[in-house]
Amino acid sequence: MKKLKNEAELLKKAILIGESYAVNRGYKNFDPTNSAKEKIESLYRLLVNDKLIHPLAIDNEDQPNMKHKLALWIAKQLPEGHALLK
Q1: Cβ neighbours of residue 21 under 8 Å, at least 6 residues apart?
Q2: Selection from 58, 21, 14 nearest residue 40 by Cα
Q3: Structurally, how many domains does the chain consist of?
Q4: Which of 75, 35, 40, 39 is nearest to 61 (CA)?
Q5: What is the pTM of this model?
Q6: CATH number of the domain that residue 56 is part of
Q7: What is the dihedral of CA 41, 46, 48, 51, to 10 degrees?
Q8: Taking the chain, what is the end-to-end CA distance rounded to the nearest angstrom?
Q9: Distance (Å) of CA 64 to CA 11, 23, 27, 82, 83
Q10: In this predicted model, what pLDDT tens digit does every residue of 57-68 receive, in sequence order?
């Protein structure tokens, strides 16, 4: 897995956009007490369920790989020339 440039910032953006997507899909808002790990796993599973991202292999389903998948997902959603893609 090759780390993306600005992967941490892309992940933050993915969580922000992913939360809005989840709410639009009928998911209740995340509680302020939800950890980032819980949000990442929930968003990853929602996006896999909706077939917006390909699932990881069962033996590779861990936090670093889920974070990377979410960062890749948002990088593909951003317009060309976006500051996070440079």
Answers
A1: 43, 46
A2: 14
A3: 1
A4: 40
A5: 0.90
A6: 1.20.120.1930
A7: -160
A8: 19
A9: 11, 24, 24, 24, 23
A10: 999 999 999 999
